[in-house]
Amino acid sequence: MTQDQRRTRISRRRFLANGAALGAALGPAQVARAAVSGPEGAAAGMLPMPAMRDALPPRPSIEDPGRSLMDSGWRFHLGDIPMPEIRGHGWSYNSAKAGQAQGAAAMQYDDSDWPEVELPHDWAMAMPIEETANVSQGYRRRGFGWYRRALRLDPQDRGRYLEIQFGGIATNATIWFNGSVVAHNWSGYTSVYVDITDLARYGDDLNTIVVRVDAQSMEGWWYEGAGLYRHVWLVKRDATYIATDGIHADPRRGPGGAWTVPVTATLGNIGTRSAAVTIEATLIDPDGRMVATHTAAGTVPSLEPMDVALTLPVATPGLWSVDRPTLYTLRTRLIRAGRTVDERTLRIGFRTVRFDAATGFHLNDQPLKIKGTCNHQDHAGVGVAVPDALWEWRLRRLKDLGCNAIRFSHNAIATEVLDACDRMGFLVMSENRNFNTSPDYIAQLQWLVRRDRNRPSVILWSVFNEEPMQGTPAGYEMVRRMSRVVKALDESRPVTAAMNSGMFAPVNVSQAVDLVGFNYQRDQYDRFHGANPTLPMISSEDTSSFMTRGAWQTDRAAHVMASYDEEPADWGSTHRASWKSIAERPFVGGSFVWTGFDYHGEPSPFEWPSVSSYFGIMDLCGFPKMAYYLHRAQWIDDTPLLDLMPHWNWPGREGQPVKVIALTNVDTVRLLLNGTVIGEQAVDRYTMPHWQIPYAPGRLEAIGYRGGREVARSAVETTGPAVALRITPDRRAMAADGEDVQPFTIDAIDAQGRHVPTANLPVAFAATGGTIIGLGNGDPTSHEAEQGDRRDLFNGLAQVIVRAGRDARPLSLTVTSAGLRSATTTVRLLATPPRPSVPSTAATLMLQDWRQSPAFAAKPSPDIVLADNDMNSWLFVRAGEIQPAQGAGPWSVLRAKVTPRRPVRERGGKLVLQGVVGRGEVWIDGKRVGTKAGFAPGTVVVPMPAGEGERVVSVLLEGNGTQASGLGGIVFVEE
Ligand code: GAL
């Protein structure tokens, strides 16, 4: 079987494995209809993109049945909201108490004017491009923003462990829950897990989550986005539970060759007594057969985390590799009193990794050259809020070009992306963002290792990228400490650092790592290896060669870089030269090309008006540049590949030489112009065959030979003018779950249906059955909006990213351009239940915090004064929890202050007091607005008059001598 056939088989199996999860929802017929990709080709006039696919994207591995998505129901405010200036004793005193956050962090803050947004959300993508903004961030101002969300918890959740998980917030964030600060997060790339159990409210007593995001703060020199740009989850667990990231199960091969899975479960217990529990870990092979199961017992103390460990033996597991990413399932159950109370399912893989100082990287004891790309986390149109399905697509683009490794530079990536890397067979260099050994930052490093140390894809921990202290004793000491922190959590993977200087200094970071990462510095590989023959090394970053997709003539004044791979950055080298230096040196473990995809920001070699990068093997949309075909021909061996560049539309250049290049892995290439052989070259896969051909319109064709036999052809043809638009979806079917997303490629074609590579036309888009969430065309100088419904084709292409709706009806996309035939395409939306998610809850103004006067023998005035500085003579009480008034007598006054939300201020509303015990009167601002006749508990509804400002609510209650009077239920303002 050829490697290609094997790959096809693997991807089919992979699909079926994923399809199985989806199968329940889709039915077997729909799953069986799914097909694997067709061949790719850039033959004459064809679209330079993969053929259409019909498979649904795999859903992220469901690992945790206790989690529900909380991506909807968020209200957003762009800009900061300064905290009020607090004055006076009463306000000062109260604002300093738990639950009493002020300003927009207050539970009662009026967010009725804030629009609702869906997560993932990157507000910076909608910001204008401004010359006075930071070039590194793509000339977009990021600034500050606030999010608020109401959350209703079921009364049955009382007693359970509750947690909110923020996948990632760009950049610095403060999080409040029910008016108390519950987290500060000082990185845009770490997740935040917030235990809300003690502060939670239940039933109609609503909870409030508030996040203030400071995206003015930066951690990078690339576009970082802004806001809640990854998923948010609500987690509900039993009182005894498996902690988040609490399973450590990283397979180990013993000295004799036998494998084991050592499983450690970190458990928690919020109960008041210790809990006797059993852990049951079961390993299941890819065919669903149980391989091993074991149990271990322990007692979890109250409020103290505890580890329970066991080891599963596995004789001869199928190994995980980049070509065959075999995943096993590890199910860990927490059993208490005979009942499973928590459960986690992980996908793990069996593989060994080793870096050798002489022979480079070895996967499963086989040498494997790392053919990697560095990538930032943004995409055209959506910024850093890249939906899971779009990530899946991006990774598939990398896989298709033969890339086997990714360095998510220079920060932690979303867990869903790593799920896909495990599944698709990528090696991951996991990189820490902040080089800092103070406790907050060490906690970020620990979080990263703890989260990802079970993943077969992750092979390396990188503690930094290009730190100026790398050649100093301080840098060395810092890395020594960080390496120790990593090893304490995971001793199996090497620690590295991406160095661009200092590696020859007397004391430097290379002395504190297991593997030295070289950023650029190609001319130092041999010297360093000579001086350090026992230290393994890798190119953690190389290349940085500029290309504008589809451009073949450099015009620096217009900020256009030709795609011939001839103009690298001063510190970089061409794709060809970089790969040659690495490929020819077995001691260099491999390459991480800067970059796989273009990204917003860092538009080197230019600044304004360029706004996104020129480094990518693909552009911002994932459209291939020449470097894509180049690397594919260098990185994929067996399948014959041949792509001829550039396009053949050069009107006005007749007779002038045009540089032609063939990107190929065959032995010999013969070139024909309009049927006449005009050249033949033996292929040097480092430099690739190229010619200067006097331009004549028509057909330029290359034929590739192996062993004298024709194995591949590629042609470019001079096209006519564009007459029509064309839409090419990636998939013909999508999941109608409100989450699935796919990019549609838009191009223009001539009268013969050939792709017109020079078309630069305005196009308008309209979708039904789905929502357009982003637009792009890969032009690094474009200032067009990336959201909306119109965009120019750039060098023949544009991209529309559409999110599926939730109705199982066709999704249709129509594209139009004046003077061209429009196009419409339809894809099926297959009924798919959405993932478990937390429903939106309308924000309601709750009035839960009251002061309660002492008891009076006679009816007091409702306006009886409580001094602003008196924190002692009236009780602090919460609605819903009656406390008897202190002293003798049936009467008491309950008082609260509230500023209604805008609709009530404008139109008036109602104050609803549930479960009021006692006979009495309700007064607002000195006016009686309602009465209650009986003593028995009852609901009182009174009008809340319109008008601005704070209201003083006084409830005058008379008890009946046997039962304490008070507010036995919640109090809220109805709009
Ligand atoms: C490197 C750096 C990258 C990027 C690149 C551009 O020095 O690590 O983040 O800036 O240069 O060539």
TrEMBL record:
What keywords tag this UniProt record? Glycosidase, Hydrolase, Signal
Glycoside hydrolase family 2 immunoglobulin-like beta-sandwich domain location: 258-351
Please give the InterPro entries that the UniProt record associates with this protein. Beta-gal/glucu_dom_sf, Beta-mannosidase-like_N2, DUF4982, GalA-like, Galactose-bd-like_sf, GH, GH2_Domain-Containing, Glyco_hydro2_dom5
One of its Pfam families is Glyco_hydro_2_N2
Name the domain of life: Bacteria
Q: Could you tell me what this protein is called? A: Beta-galactosidase
Q: Which family is annotated?
A: Belongs to the glycosyl hydrolase 2 family.
- Stretches that traverse the bilayer: none
What are the Beta-mannosidase-like galactose-binding domain coordinates in residue numbering? 146-217
Q: Which residues form the Glycoside hydrolase family 2 catalytic domain?
A: 361-606
Recorded GO molecular functions are: hydrolase activity, hydrolyzing O-glycosyl compounds
N-terminal signal peptide? 1-34
What Gene Ontology terms for biological process does this UniProt record contain? carbohydrate metabolic process
Looking at the record, the residues that make up the DUF4982 domain are 655-712
